[in-house]
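=== Per-residue structure ===
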Amino acid sequence: MPLKLMYLTNDPQVAAIAQAAGVDRIFLDLELRGKEERQGHLDTVISHHSIEDVRRLKAVLTSAQLLVRVNSMYAGSEAEINKVIADGADIVMLPYFKTVKEVSDFVSVCKGRVKTCLLFETPEAVEHIDEILAVPGIDEVHVGINDLHLGYHLNFMFELVANGTVETLCRKFAEKGIPYGFGGVGRPGSNVALPAERILAEHYRLGSSQVILSRAFCDMSKIHDRSHLAEDFKAGVDDIRACEAQCAAMTKQEQNDNHAQVQKIVAAITGKHKG
């Protein structure tokens, strides 16, 4: 099965363009609690989406699902979650949890009214993964390698793919029969140190079912003329689907060879050469 592609935006026009291009999910990000402290020093996107955007996006979506990342559990979580569900969220994602209780409370608030997605992005969540995955009502999971690599004091988020951490988590999810994905991906053919082609092959090796289209895929902050956005976005999605077809045809040995190359590239990027 092709990966479910997720694209982060709160702009209804961009959401409609992404949907028409074949994106499966529009990702609305309401998480602000603690994010500036964790990521404010990095070149990462800290979204300033509004809970009012749920209705605005839902109004333009016909085939793509609406995934809403809420804040980590706090005193106002029940009201926040109830609001996004009432306004049309198809999937609600819980970020930055550390305990079984947070997950249990989250699922209890959702009450089966919406699909639930857990974002594994803390070392504490990894440590308690077995107890967390035993909580009934978890529909899918995603590994947030950005915050998780910070939690482990690593220098590059894809170190978690190279060092086997993501693989260990994926095996746990697979054993439970819970669909999963990890991280983000840019455009195939881009001249970057760790190419999208190699990342997509890792998704297929690990049995992933979803991925976020990264800022590098389509950085709207740098696009001032939208006249060719629809064609450009569609071309990018088509490139990913063509790459996926190649990944799906890989032998086990080819997948393992690609993983070894990912490890080599990551070691070069981080200066942690194998010797």
The chain has a mean pLDDT of 94. The longest strand covers residues 115-120. The radius of gyration is 18 Å. The beta strands are 4-8, 25-29, 65-69, 91-94, 115-120, 140-143, 180-185, 210-213.
